[in-house]
Specification:
303 residues, 10 strands, two-stranded antiparallel sheet
């Protein structure tokens, strides 16, 4: 069984983040897999986290799962001032986060793992978290980051258009109006999105050119994906087939992502038939797939 500790560390822009670091019981590890949760999620909500922690530490790896600034619907996050002894709360959570700020959270998690002795990092994200780690990897050529695991990256733009239908432009126009009037932190009316979401976050997520669109492979709002093409890391993509966050079939979505990630130094895909978006009931199969890929990756690096 792994040993573990609740931990706190700072994002690169001074927010206090918390999580859980699982470590091998019998040896120190110089490789860590860092997991980023999905929209309004948290570091412990998905049951595959428990299973994956056991599998990875059994391989001799560390596993960090952490809350980013968008954890839960609405959350107060400690923000440090210039004086380390000074801190105040900042209202955040999924309702208020801005997607591009994920860079600060992921950078902080990587720095924390380095402080614990990790020399190599695998970034993993689930759902919206998969978009975050892909976005980070597209913008940072960190030599210590050796691989990327994408668990059910969501095509949020296409899903939102499908869910709202003819109301899509009306809701977006209302969000823009509130932002322009200085009311960006007001929550959007009920029915605008599946979760509570501020007007500023809504515009940041769904306006033309939004960074969140890097997995808009249904091409409802864009038809080029330079972020994905810039990623040169080895990539593992996992998808379920039930209630997933994409339009069309798992096979077509996987192919579209593989095509756009043409610069990746290796691309493998896992489709878990019957698995839902959170992989409940398929935790073992998902964890085995991640660990098998990780073992091959580390073996190739060691050659």
């Amino acid at each position: 069984m792994p040993t573990g500790e609740l931990c706190r560390f700072a994002s690169s822009d001074g927010l206090e983040l918390s999580g859980f670091l699982a470590s091998p019981a019998s040896q120190a590890s110089d490789v860590a897999l860092v997991h980023a949760h999905g929209l309004a999620g948290n570091f412990y909500e998905n049951s595959f986290i428990d299973v994956l922690a056991d599998y990875l530490t059994g391989l001799g790896l560390s596993f960090l799962t952490f809350n980013n600034r968008g954890h839960d619907y609405i959350a107060d996050v400690v923000e440090y001032g210039p004086d380390a002894a000074y801190a105040q709360s900042r209202r955040m959570g999924g309702a208020y986060e801005l997607f591009g700020e994920c860079e600060h959270d992921i950078a902080g998690a990587i720095a924390f793992c380095r402080s614990k002795g990790s020399k190599a990092i695998i970034l993993q994200g689930h759902s919206n978290g998969a978009a975050k780690v892909a976005y980070y990897a597209s913008r940072h050529a960190d030599p210590d980051v050796i691989g990327l695991v994408l668990l059910s990256p969501s095509d949020d733009m296409a899903l939102q258009r499908q869910n709202l239908g003819n109301r899509y432009e009306t809701v977006l126009k209302e969000a823009r109006k509130r932002v322009k009037e200085g009311r960006g932190w007001e929550l959007m009316p009920r029915g605008s999105f599946g979760y509570p979401m501020s007007a500023a976050t809504y515009v940041d997520s769904f306006d033309s050119g939004a960074a969140l669109g890097l997995f808009n492979l249904a091409e409802t709002d864009r038809n080029s994906f330079p972020e994905l093409n810039r990623i040169s890391l080895p990539v593992l993509l996992a998808l379920g087939t039930v209630g997933e966050g994409y339009l069309g079939t798992a096979e077509d979505y996987q192919t579209a992502i593989r095509t756009q990630m043409s610069s990746a130094k290796g691309f493998e895909g896992i489709i878990l038939e019957g698995a839902p978006h959170n992989y409940r009931g398929h935790d073992e199969a998902l964890s085995r797939g991640i660990c098998d890929w990780t073992t091959r990756l580390l073996g190739e690096i060691a050659r």
